[in-house]
Each structure stands twice: as C-alpha cells, then as structure tokens.
UniProtKB/TrEMBL annotation:
<dbReference type="InterPro" id="IPR048395">
    <property type="entry name" value="Glyco_hydro_31_C"/>
</dbReference>
<dbReference type="InterPro" id="IPR011013">
    <property type="entry name" value="Gal_mutarotase_sf_dom"/>
</dbReference>
<dbReference type="Pfam" id="PF01055">
    <property type="entry name" value="Glyco_hydro_31_2nd"/>
</dbReference>
<protein>
    <submittedName>
        <fullName>Alpha-glucosidase</fullName>
    </submittedName>
</protein>
<dbReference type="Pfam" id="PF13802">
    <property type="entry name" value="Gal_mutarotas_2"/>
</dbReference>
<feature type="domain" description="DUF5110">
    <location>
        <begin position="693"/>
        <end position="759"/>
    </location>
</feature>
<dbReference type="InterPro" id="IPR017853">
    <property type="entry name" value="GH"/>
</dbReference>
<dbReference type="InterPro" id="IPR033403">
    <property type="entry name" value="DUF5110"/>
</dbReference>
<comment type="similarity">
    <text>Belongs to the glycosyl hydrolase 31 family.</text>
</comment>
<keyword id="KW-0326">Glycosidase</keyword>
<feature type="domain" description="Glycosyl hydrolase family 31 C-terminal">
    <location>
        <begin position="589"/>
        <end position="675"/>
    </location>
</feature>
<dbReference type="InterPro" id="IPR025887">
    <property type="entry name" value="Glyco_hydro_31_N_dom"/>
</dbReference>
<dbReference type="InterPro" id="IPR030458">
    <property type="entry name" value="Glyco_hydro_31_AS"/>
</dbReference>
<feature type="domain" description="Glycoside hydrolase family 31 N-terminal">
    <location>
        <begin position="37"/>
        <end position="210"/>
    </location>
</feature>
<dbReference type="GO" id="GO:0030246">
    <property type="term" value="F:carbohydrate binding"/>
</dbReference>
<dbReference type="GO" id="GO:0004553">
    <property type="term" value="F:hydrolase activity, hydrolyzing O-glycosyl compounds"/>
</dbReference>
<dbReference type="GO" id="GO:0005975">
    <property type="term" value="P:carbohydrate metabolic process"/>
</dbReference>
Amino acid sequence: MITNTELELKGNQFPNHIVSYNKNIDVLDFKTENDVTLQITIVRDSVIRFRYSTTSNFDNDFSYAITKYASTGYNFLEIEEEEEQYIITTQKLICHVNKQDLKVNIYDAKDKSLISHDELGFHWEESYEFGGDIVKMSKTSQDGESYYGLGDKPSHLNLKGKRFENWVTDSYAYGKDTDPIYKAIPFYTGLHHGKSYGIFFDNTFRSFFDFAHERKNVTSFWAQGGEMNYYFIYGPKMTDVVANYTDLTGKPHQLPALWTLGYHQCKWSYYPESKVKEVTAKFRELQIPCDAIYLDIDYMEGFRCFTWNKEYFPDPKGMVQELLEDGFKTIVIIDPGIKIDKDYEVYKEGIENDYFCRRADGPYMKGKVWPGECYFPDFTNPKVRDWWSGLFKELIEDIGVKGVWNDMNEPAVMEVPNKTFPDDVRHDYDGNPCSHRKAHNIYGMQMARATYQGLKKFGYPKRPFVITRAAYAGTQRYTSSWTGDNIATWEHLWIANVQAQRMALSGFSFIGSDIGGFAEQPNGELYARWIQLGVFHPFCRTHSSGDHGEQEPWMFGEEITGIVKKFIELRYQLLPYLYTSFWHYLNEGTPILKSLVLYDQEDIQTHYRTDEFIFGDQILVCPIIEANSKGRRLYLPKGNWYNYWNNEVSSGGKEHWVEADLDSMPIFVKEGAIIPKYPIQQYVGEKEIDEVGLDVYFKTGKENSFLFDDAHDGYDYTKGRFSLRTFKLTGKTNELIIQQHKAGTFITSYKTFKLKLIGLPFKISKIQVDNEEIALESLKVNGDNTLIIDKDFTELHIME
Ligand code: GLC
C-alpha cells in the first residue's frame, strides 16, 4: 500500500495572513496567503454574510433558503484599515477582521460590547472520502450564553450543553432528545448579557451544531461539504433576530385561508366513503367544530399517487362536494415515491421525460415505500416541479380537494439502514448538479414547493394549503407542517409543546403536532390535555396511526368529549385573534408562538423555561403535561395578567400555583389587551359574522391591540382590501379610553363590536362615543359590563 503521509496528517487547516483586500460596493473580499478567501456581504445594518472559500474561487452562489424578497440595504457602511485588522462599521455592528489569521469579532455599534468572537474561527479538513472540505467554525461561548432555535429538535428549549445534527430523517416514534429527526433548520439564536444575535448556516449538507457541549466555552458548527456560508443577524432583541431571519428566508407567500386555522381531523386511514361520512356526520351531530377531513394513503389505488381506489371511493368528486356542503374541506396525502408500474400514467410520464432521480452510475434510484418499489421525482429540477404541479389539476380543479399533505419526503425509503437515498444519487439542484449529500436536506422542501405551485395554480383564486413533514430553512414560504410520528405519551405532550415553540423561533410558525399522539393510544385524560395545548398551535389536527383504536374527540367518553368540544370552541372563538397574529407574522416576521425568553429576554427567569408561551401577543398559555394534575406551577412574565377563566389578576415576575382541573388549562390575558372573538361556528363561514366580541382587559396605563380582517381567502387583501384596526387603550383610575385607528379598504361583514369590559376599577356613570354621550341603558351589567357599539367608532370614553 502506498500512503501519502502528508495528506493523512493534514487534519484541521487554518487561514493564514491576509494578502489582499478588495471592496465592491457592499461585498468585501479578503484573501490570505494560503488561498483562503473570506467574502463579507453587508446585507443590512444588522445582517452580515460570511462566506469562505479554501481554493480562492467560489461555486455558483445559489440557495434554496434565501428568498428573493429578502430586504437588503443599509444606512451606513465604513471600512477602515488598521495595523492589525480591518474594521467594518454599519449602523448596528462593528466587525473586526484580523489580518494575521482572518478571525472575526463582532461588536454592538452602540455600546461597543462584544457579541461574537471567533475562537478558532473558520477552519477546514479535507474530505478524502468525497472530495471537497469539511468546513468548520468555532466561536467563544460567552458567559451565561443561551441558545434557541434549530427547527424541530425534541430537546429542552435552551440548547446549551448539547450537540445536534441536521439531516432530515423519517423518525417513527422518536423520543425526547432523538436527533436528527424530520427537519433541518440550521439557524440558532444566541443570547448573552441581555443581547441576542442569530446565526444562519446556509449549508444543506449534513451539518452539526455544538453548543458548549464538547468544550464549555466554545460553540461550533460544521458541515460535511459545501461552503462555510453563514449569516450573522443582530438584534439585540430576539424578536428582531427571528424577524430578520424570517425576512431573509421568507415569510409565507400568502395568508392561510381562515378555514385552515380551524380544527382538522385525520387518521391513517378513513375509508371507505361511508366511514368518512360517518365521522364528519358525528362532528355535526355533537356540534364539535371541524373544518377539514383527511384521506391518508388508503384512498389511492395501490398507493399510486394521483389515483383513487374506486372500490372505497366510487365517486370522489361527489363525496368531496357533499363534504364541502357540510363545511368539510377534503385534504389528501401525496408522497414522493412513484410506483414502478408500466401501466401507471404518472410513472410513464416520469420515465418518458427522465424526471426521476438517478444513481451516479446511471440507473434510476429505486427504493421501497408504501406502494412497493418506486422511483422518485427529482424535485430539485425546475422542469420536474412544473410537471409535478401540473399533476394536481384533476385533484384540485375537478375533484375539489382543498389541501395536500406531503409525507415521506425526507425522502424516506423503507428496509434500508440509512432510511433514505444513498449518497451518490444525482440531483439537478436547479442547474447546479450535485449528489444527494447536498440535496438531501432540501428534497422535501422542493417537493412541498412543487405541490404548493400546483395548488396555487389550480386552486386560484383561493389560497393554497399544503402540509409537509420534511423541511429546510425557508420552507415556511410554501407550506404548513406537523412534527411527524410522535407517540401517545405524556413525554410527547412536553415534546409537542417545545417543538412548536422552537419551530416558531426558527421562522416556521404554521406548525402543530399529531394531537393525541400518532403511535399507540392516549387515554381520555392525555387526549384532553393534548387538545388543550393543540388548539393554541397554529396548525391544529388530531392524527393517529389507527392501529390502537380510534382517536376522534368522542372516543373517550362523555366527560372528555365535553372538554374537547369546549376547547375546540375556544379555538373558533379566538380565530380573529389568531388570524391577526398570522397577519403580523406575514408582515413583520414575528413568530405566532412566543417562548417566554423571546417575550422578555431581559428577565433571566425566562431563559430556561419551556412550558409557558405567549400565543400571539397577549395570551399566555401553559399546558398541563402531567397525569392526575389539579393544577400546576407556572411563571408569569412581568406585568399583570388576568386569569382567563375567572378574571382574577395576578402579578408577573414570579411563579404561581394555578388550579386547572381536567376541564381547564392555565390561560392568562395580558392586562390592557383587547381580545377579538367570533361566535362559535361549526366551521369557518358557517355563520355570517355580524358582530365581533372585544374582551377588554382593563389596565391602568396603555396597551395596543389589533384586529385584522379580510375576505378570509383569496388575494384581494394584497391589493389593500383588508381591514386593520388598532385599538389604543388608556386606563386611568376613573376613566377608560379606547381609540380606534382604521386602515385598509375592506368592508367587514361585522357591523358592531360587543365590548366586554373586564376588571374596571370604577362604576360607570358616563359613556361617550366620538364625543357624544350615549344612554347608560345601552350598557348591560351582568357580571361584566357589556356594551354594543358601531364598529367604526373613533374614540370611546368610559367614565366614573
Ligand atoms: C407516515 C406519516 C403519517 C401517515 C403514515 C401513512 O408515518 O408520518 O402521518 O399517517 O405515514 O401515510
């Protein structure tokens, strides 16, 4: 054997001293004597991109994650050269690049505090197995630093002390700390000394993050190929970090149709047609609201995508239509594996056009999934995405299906140890051909994107609705998601809570878990507790494998049915509040669920809390995640909070014991909030909403609240046909003032507001609407003060 000892001993390699510097507007190139190039791009005052090459050339700059709609531009940029370093200054950041070793330090421009410090900084190892580099970065972990984000990791919300891998994986019945699972979102937020920053490592190869696990004072990340290419995103507020990351990787391309925020019922599988109807009829009979019913793989003919099993579903169009008349939108599953069957149209088209992924040596990639042996479309090829989107014509346009659920798109392959494609499989990668090592983490994202394009096209002028299991950074632009095959255990209820918050912190708010658990069966108590949490997740669906019994809301006896109904009804009442939160998410990139640390990062009590979260801006939710609980301890952030159930006020900044029997769950409303509410409906659109409830929670001081409305579907809102109302509340010991500011041209169906005045510290003796006094008789006093007023009021004064 001939060994090249020089190569073998190479190990980690480092850049040496800078020999040239070049600036082209907002792109700065630093080259070292040993051919490393660091390219720094000033994206915004608070967002800087760092890109390293070890060969002095860069590959084509292409990313599936970064959206073309990302904001760019800065207010200030200055570059100075000193003896030891280059200094780059923007309005928000100061960045030092060391001339000797290319290490970078980043400071807050305002108070000059150190935010990010390269420990070893950029380094690399040659990958003899595959060619190219294993690219690495290590930074100092600062005193008391905490870490958040990273997608769907089923671990403690604060990632400190742990190591993670990003490689999307089919993970049936995963558990706490299983890693990796379905999603790869290589973005984290660090928080130290009250300041927060984010790092998005836009590299789709298998990557790793180590948060002070291997070495206590070091945080590092690396990938098995590709470039060291990361975005540094500065806050110092964590909300701004997440919002800026979301701006970079994209907000959802449109609002979800309001019905998609209703309750969804799913099972593997509801069939035949009579079973589907039995389930939907039961919802209506028991008056449990529900908007969507799902067909899992058994609706197809031998699991062939885009076909129907005509024995189970002789008239899909008729059934879908009838369900719709009863308010149920039908959602069907579509997987990536296309059955190898020479008589199957989709297969034939794929072969004729060479749309399937190939092995490096030429043959198509063959793998087993539900239909048996399959080929897999290369969704990284724009032509294939086009073709795929076209396949939805019949389902959407003709049959009337309203949503598509993309599953197994990691891609999952059965009966092979690595559960997916071999590394050598080739992908087009939008004209940047590569192996599966690079395309794996974005395969599912591109499938969901192609599906989204089909639904958008054929569902027009309605908004598309897609659900995906696999995701990479940026997937939130196209689709909602769920957390995969969880288990009906209490531990998984904890996991579901953490995952939904973590996904929100990772720019992906439209997320939920399989309520009740997918594998195994919950008892009534667990199901009730899960529904209580689930109705506060943006995507709200019960799903189960069905192997262990039924999981409809009424399967656990009368008491549980009543509790489930009560909480789903609460969800429907809060729809305008949730829809408004979505609108904020779409416009500002602020997550819909806010972990306490995001809500108040300055309060260190929040840094390690996992259970409580803020739903929207003003409702605090804390699920009960243990059996036999009569209540729980929870932490209320600073400020005063009303207990939703009894309107008692508690002060925050400390822990409280809160009673919560099985029919209840701790919910608190921030003082000063005005919470919009709909009447209970069995499905969205069942009733014409002519009045919106506004629950006004008195506060001494000021608080703003919002109410967004539009046609609840379609795109008119993008042309200004929306209605955005801002309510400015000012409370004094003897007076309450609510000012309303209106924007947008949409005429809402509601004409009046029904105000419920909660916690008023005085007895009302005078009411003025737009400076005119109104009769006190219009005020109903029945526990709370209720008042109905015209929706277009400008100023309401309520006086002692
Ligand atoms: C996968 C999915 C699950 C689905 C099942 C059958 O396990 O994660 O949700 O029900 O496949 O399609």
